[in-house]
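If your schedule permits, I should be very grateful for your opinion on a structural question. The matter concerns a single protein, recorded as an amino acid sequence and a row of backbone structure tokens. Could you please explain, in whatever detail you think fit, how the structure tokens follow from the sequence? I set the record out below, with my sincere thanks for your time.

——
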Amino acid sequence: MPPSLVVSELSRRRLLAWALRAGAAVAFSGCEGSKSKESTRPGVITLRFWTGFTGGDGAYIKKIVEDFNAATPRVEVKMTTYMWLDLFQKLAGAVISGQSPDIAVMHVDDIPTNAARTLITPIDEVARALGLQESDYTSRMVWQGGLYRGKRYGIPLDMHPLGLFYNKTVLRKAGLDPEKPPRTGDEYMAALEQLKGHGIQGHWVSPFLFTGTFQFETLLWQFGGDLFDPEGTRATFDSDAGVQAMTWMVDLVKKGYSPANVAQDADYLALQNGRNAFNWNGIWQINALKEVPNLEWGVAPIPRIGSQQAVWGNSHQFVLPRQPSQDPARQEAARAFLQYMSQRSIDWMKSGQVPVLKSVAESPEFQSLTEQNQLAQQASYIHFPPALAGINDALVLIDRAVSQAVLGKASPADALKAAAAQATQVVQHNRKKYGA
């Protein structure tokens, strides 16, 4: 499963789901799973493993854990699944009470905050023991994503970028080639114009985090901008590049390529129902769309609208929560589990993930996964949220700016300027709170 953990020929790991930003809980259900219980079998080491894989990917991780337990009679992994927000809230209490899990999964933007709060521990030695190195990975960004203040806290499991999902039937009806989705801004606008001529609003712009904010961030990077300055002292998403990105989205509504006031997930449902042609969404939709009867669809890399290739993405990474005491036997058992996950990386990719290890990405097994292979083409230019403690408190303000601009409550420039001013206050406060 995990593309990152390593060694051995299939070598190294992966991880994913999607990060619900503070207070912006969008529906990916999840609730508390059954509590882990220590094994009653003599001589068996029980590892507690916490994840937030509550969707369709949960069945894949569960199967890998079951196979590990069957293959290693002296080590038993007890997996507990929580909704992502619940996982982080419960982790703090578990660490304080001395009941923390042995292994957990987090998104890259959650690692800095939990590292700064000393809820997770540096794992540079574990990475070295597993033989992990940057050259093994498809993206420098995913390798760097596990670092905080020069120390490694996360071992990459996977990546989950945005992709262009398209309805082939709708494209065919509009006279467009269903096997050649647009790759450039000009091609994309030409396709939207042709769809509009056939009474179809081809790209519904969402005013919500899923997936309006991810679209804005993708476009911001494509136009050459960034979310924050390199030092993490101020927000920069209100730059000229940011205004260009937001204006592009708002213009889709103004020019009739998108309806106004799109409801949460309505853009994705419209793709399924043949009411639009394109939907910028995450890899998590791959297996869900396969279950929709009689739907002809495809997925491709996000078109290059701006001056450079870029796409929003995130990564699941393995972390080791802080323990009240160090047990060498348990540490060795944890390394064995992480290595096993690495060896089963291709099985995890079937849940809809994109591999982080070159050996997995280049393998015939992964090449046969048509949809995932399309999105893996974006690996070299995926962008992640910045590695700043408390960053989600600032990122949620981007969601607000997207909502204000897309719904026509403020101009792109005004919405971004107001949000950036508040986000700057947040990151400066966090620098004092967590240390610069």
In short: The chain has 18 helices and twelve strands. The CA atoms of residues 17 and 36 lie 22 Å apart. The longest strand covers residues 160-167. The chain has a mean pLDDT of 90.
